[in-house]
């Protein structure tokens, strides 16, 4: 079963936000303890930043291909 793009657009930020709130509730030193890559907290902060950057560059590449093909 493949999820549609609108479903993933809503589902992925909600999952990352849930992970962020989970890390904030479990970690006793939440903002300062997020520097280690072995911590779940690090990835719960990294995921909400990585997804918009990935979408931006994916759309930028797609737009470049479209413009190159039609010019």
Record keyword descriptors for this entry.
71 residues, mainly alpha, 0% strand, elongated, transmembrane helix
Describe the structure.
Keywords: Membrane, Transmembrane, Transmembrane helix. The chain crosses the membrane at residues 42-65. Pfam families: PIG-Y (PF15159). One of its GO terms (biological process) is GPI anchor biosynthetic process. The chain has one domain. Helix 1 packs antiparallel against helix 2. The mean pLDDT is 76. The longest helix is centred in the C-terminal third of the chain and has 31 residues, at 40-70. The chain has helices at 5-26, 40-70. It is built from 2 helices and no strands.
Radius of gyration, whole Å: 17 Å
* Largest sheet entry: none
- Proportion in helices: over 70%
Strand content: under 5%
Number of strands: 0
Mean pLDDT: 76
Q: What is the domain tally?
A: 1
* Total helical elements: 2
The poorly predicted ranges are: none
Query: Could you say which overall geometry the principal axes of the C-alpha atoms support?
Result: elongated
Distance from first to last alpha carbon: 38 Å
> What structural category arises from helix and sheet content?
mainly alpha
